[in-house]
Amino acid sequence: MRVAVYCGSASGADPVFMNATQALGQYFAEQGIEVVYGGGHVGLMGKIADSVLAAGGRVSGVMPESLVKREIAHSHLTSLTVVNNMHERKAQMADMADAFVALPGGAGTLEEIFEAWTWAQLGHHTKPCAFYNVQGFYDPLFAMIDNMVQQGFLKDEYRQMLIRVDEPDALVKAFRDYQAPDEKWR
């Protein structure tokens, strides 16, 4: 299995985010799960790559050339694919992945996981999308998603397709057990 990991290029204000990322990366490597991610060496991005690699796992990065030129690319990955822009990065990562997970992060993290989730709703893929909810980080977002359902902008079946976990084994089990709903606009 290959999992696309979306996460912050920052470390976060609480060390719990770095610690949880390190533990998840080690768990992925121990389970033989490969990681594909944005290719950076900074923040949670760097921590997920370092922890997978340190445990003997494989990590593939996908990074736009403009960020490689800024020396943000991780230099010890299993592979690094350099693309022209962020649109190509997201498409390449989606093609490479069997599942998607968002760890804590900012606007870019949300944009990437929401695009993967939207593509799943539209039937472009049947891969699971998850939020790794470290210390309740995504609880306010889940409240907003619940509000979208309550206000009639999102069907409950599409809310339910999002995996919400905070433990490595629960995440991998949810990926393996995932059953995609019917595509939207069928």
Strands, helices and their partners?
Blueprint: E1 2-6, H1 15-30, E2 34-37, H2 43-54, E3 59-64, H3 65-69, E4 79-83, H4 86-96, E5 99-102, H5 107-121, E6 129-132, H6 139-150, H7 156-160, E7 162-165, H8 168-177
Parallel strand pairs: 1-2, 1-5, 2-3, 3-4, 5-6, 6-7
Helix pairs in contact: 1-2
Q: Could you please describe the fold and organization of this structure?
A:
The chain is α/β, with parallel strands linked by helices and 186 residues long. It has one domain (2-174): Rossmann fold (3-Layer(aba) Sandwich), CATH 3.40.50. It contains eight helices and seven strands, in the order E-H-E-H-E-H-E-H-E-H-E-H-H-E-H. The chain has helices at 15-30, 43-54, 65-69, 86-96, 107-121, 139-150, 156-160, 168-177; strands spanning 2-6, 34-37, 59-64, 79-83, 99-102, 129-132, 162-165. Strands 4-3-2-1-5-6-7 form a seven-stranded parallel sheet, sandwiched between helices. Strand 2, helix 2 (43-54) and strand 3 (59-64) form a beta-alpha-beta unit. Helix 1 runs parallel beside helix 2. The longest helix has 16 residues, at 15-30. The radius of gyration is 16 Å and the shape is globular. The two termini are 29 Å apart.
Number of helix segments? 8
- Class from secondary-structure proportions: alpha/beta
Beta percentage is 15-25%
Secondary-structure element string: EHEHEHEHEHEHHEH
- How many β-strand stretches? 7
User: Mean pLDDT, as a whole number?
Assistant: 96
Q: How is the CATH topology named?
A: Rossmann fold
The CATH class label is Alpha Beta
What is the count of structural domains?
1
How far from one another are the termini? Answer: 29 Å
Evaluate the radius of gyration: 16 Å
